[in-house]
Automatic annotation (TrEMBL):
Cofactor(s) it depends on: FMN; Mg(2+)
Annotated GO biological process: coenzyme A biosynthetic process; pantothenate catabolic process
Region (Phosphopantothenate--cysteine ligase): 15-222
Homology family: In the N-terminal section; belongs to the HFCD (homo-oligomeric flavin containing Cys decarboxylase) superfamily. In the C-terminal section; belongs to the PPC synthetase family.
Full-protein interval shown: 177 to 398 of 398
Purpose of the protein: Catalyzes two steps in the biosynthesis of coenzyme A. In the first step cysteine is conjugated to 4'-phosphopantothenate to form 4-phosphopantothenoylcysteine, in the latter compound is decarboxylated to form 4'-phosphopantotheine.
Pathway: Cofactor biosynthesis; coenzyme A biosynthesis; CoA from (R)-pantothenate: step 3/5; Cofactor biosynthesis; coenzyme A biosynthesis; CoA from (R)-pantothenate: step 2/5
Enzyme Commission number(s) of this protein: 4.1.1.36, 6.3.2.5
Binding-site residues for CTP, renumbered to this chain: D103, K113, P130, D131, I132, V133, F148, K162, K166
GO molecular function, a single term: metal ion binding
Record protein name field: Coenzyme A biosynthesis bifunctional protein CoaBC
Species: Exilibacterium tricleocarpae
Cofactor notes: Binds 1 FMN per subunit.
Length: 222
């Protein structure tokens, strides 16, 4: 648990982080997912832990090792991530949503493997997944809630729209149309979209970015 003896900037605080992709089952052997590596969320979990916080990492499937002294809650689907987030919410001071949550899931996963048969087309009906970060931000008492926005155009506009629509305290926006950094890279450059201003953080490693984000969040809590 968060050490009584921790003296970091988040000592005594409880931080919950979502990370990685989700997988939405089509049938017992197939799923819909995305290319999220989970690196940013895992780096943030390490940085929060180093800053003295009790840290819970709710992670979809990744290839990353579990960070030390962090409680890792593995999940697969968006609905599982939502349930785990609700459970982790009591006493949560900071909620950071880095997960690339599938926006939609197949209405019902087929009980048996879907057979190709004679058909040339296949239509699968998708239903919307719950918005996890918006639900956490709507909770009373409200944790300091941080979202991530990966955009390919109008990056700041869309990020600010998410800040307002989901009632977030901070959105970390990045331009994924740049092929050199971002989604699967070890580095990133972002713009922090705060309610009243914007702040550019130039290109740096995800580990450094995580430490810089944690310091800014800690300053807001203080
Ligand atoms: N998010 C979430 N639950 C969802 C969808 C998104 O918690 N079902 C969170 C992400 O973890 C991220 C933020 O919301 O922190 C923004 O995610 P993004 O996919 O950019 O936003 P959406 O609202 O899904 O909008 P769109 O995909 O249309 O851009
Ligand atoms: Ca989305």
């Amino acid at each position: 648990c968060a050490g009584l003896f921790d003296t970091g900037s988040l000592a005594g605080k409880r931080v919950v982080i979502t990370a990685g992709p989700t997988r939405e089952a089509l049938d017992p052997v197939r799923y819909i997912s995305n290319h999220s590596s989970g690196k940013m969320g895992y780096a943030l979990a390490e940085a929060a832990r180093e800053a003295g916080a009790t840290t819970v990492l709710i992670s979809g499937p990744t290839h990353l090792p579990s960070p030390e002294r962090v409680t890792l809650l593995p999940v697969v689907s968006a609905e599982e991530m939502y349930a785990a987030s609700l459970q982790a919410l009591p006493d949560c001071d900071v909620f950071i949503a880095t997960a690339a949550v599938a926006d939609y899931r197949p209405d019902q996963a087929a009980a048996q493997k879907i057979k190709k048969g004679e058909r040339d087309t296949l239509v699968i009906e998708l239903v919307k997944n719950p918005d996890i970060v918006a639900a956490m931000a709507a909770h009373t008492p409200k944790p300091f809630t941080v979202g991530f926005a990966a955009e390919t155009e109008r990056v700041i506009d869309y990020a600010r729209d998410k800040l307002e629509r989901k009632q977030l305290d901070l959105v970390v926006a990045n331009d994924v149309s740049r092929s050199d950094i971002g989604f699967n890279s070890d580095e990133n450059a972002v713009t922090l979209v705060w309610p009243q201003r914007e702040e550019n953080l130039s290109r740096r490693s995800k580990h450094q970015l995580a430490r810089d984000l944690v310091e800014r969040i800690a300053r807001q809590l203080a």
